[in-house]
Amino acid sequence: MTTATSPRLGAARQLELVAVEVAALAARLVLDSVGAAQAAATKSSPTDVVTHTDVASEQLIRRELTLRCPGSSFLGEESGSDSGVSGVGWIVDPIDGTVNFLYDLPVVSVSIAATIDGEVVAGAVADVLRGEMFSATKGQGARRNESPIGTSDVDRLDLALIGTGFSYDQNVRSEEARIVASLLPRCRDIRCMGSAALNLCWVGCGRLEGFYERDIKVYDYSAGALIAAEGGAQVQLPRDNDTDLTIAAAPAIFTPLHTLV
């Protein structure tokens, strides 16, 4: 077991602080463009947009991480991956909630996860509009604005508020609609808010009892999933199953939620 005094844990905590600092810089850049977003391109479908601010945010993040941690590898949603030499890596979503950002809706985040030798060990998610910063170090808990957070103590699915999101792939959406129709009568309610990273953080701090989504990418969930887990949630990621499912929930409702979705 890793102890609080181990060099690896100390390094991971320092990477959390770097992620927080750089995420805050990127969040300020994004905030300056709220209400004036312009689409620059599309990706997987005509509704899967990239704005000029996505690109600018990722460029800022890459530059600032390189200054603070030379030799790191980098995986970004907009610019792809670069290999490093230090053993440290970064997984970045420069704007999680781009469609919300384009439509001037208030659920927009910046997500930065840090890895050591390929393992996610730290992360930060900045809520651009609310000014909240969620962060975590593996083995050292999760925080919101540096105050410890924890999951909801709700222990019944019928009292649980669940978050989800939908794929850009029309074929996947048909199955997602079937799952929502099955789950909705069995939980308190369902919310679709457009940022997987923030949904995962909200599970970690008890604002949601659970969150699930298919067909999301590693940069969407890496930081948020660590924050949820360090907040006490039970988490399963696509690499842990064969159904492309990301799911996080308060421990008491994980199994009934997982069974339905």
Helix and strand layout, with pairings?
Elements: H1 7-32, E1 39-42, E2 49-51, H2 52-68, E3 73-76, E4 80-82, E5 88-96, H3 98-102, E6 109-116, E7 119-127, E8 132-137, E9 142-144, E10 147-148, E11 161-164, H4 170-183, E12 189-192, H5 196-205, E13 210-214, H6 218-230, E14 234-236, E15 245-249, H7 251-260
Parallel strand pairs: 3-5, 11-12, 11-13
Antiparallel strand pairs: 1-2, 3-4, 5-6, 6-7, 7-8, 8-9, 9-10, 13-15, 14-15
Helix pairs in contact: 1-2, 5-6
Kindly describe this structure.
The chain has 261 residues and is α+β, with helices and mostly antiparallel strands. It has two domains: 7-148, Fructose-1,6-Bisphosphatase, subunit A, domain 1 (Fructose-1,6-Bisphosphatase, Chain A, domain 1); 157-260, D-Maltodextrin-Binding Protein, domain 2 (3-Layer(aba) Sandwich), CATH 3.40.190. Helices cover 36% and strands 28% of the residues. The protein is built from seven helices and 15 strands. The strands form three sheets. Strands 4-3-5-6-7-8-9-10 form an eight-stranded mixed β-sheet, with helices on both faces. It has a five-stranded mixed β-sheet with strand order 12-11-13-15-14, sandwiched between helices. A two-stranded antiparallel sheet has the order 1-2. A hairpin with a 4-residue loop joins strand 7 (119-127) and strand 8 (132-137). It starts with 6 loop residues before the first helix and ends with a helix. The model is unreliable at 1-5 (pLDDT under 50).
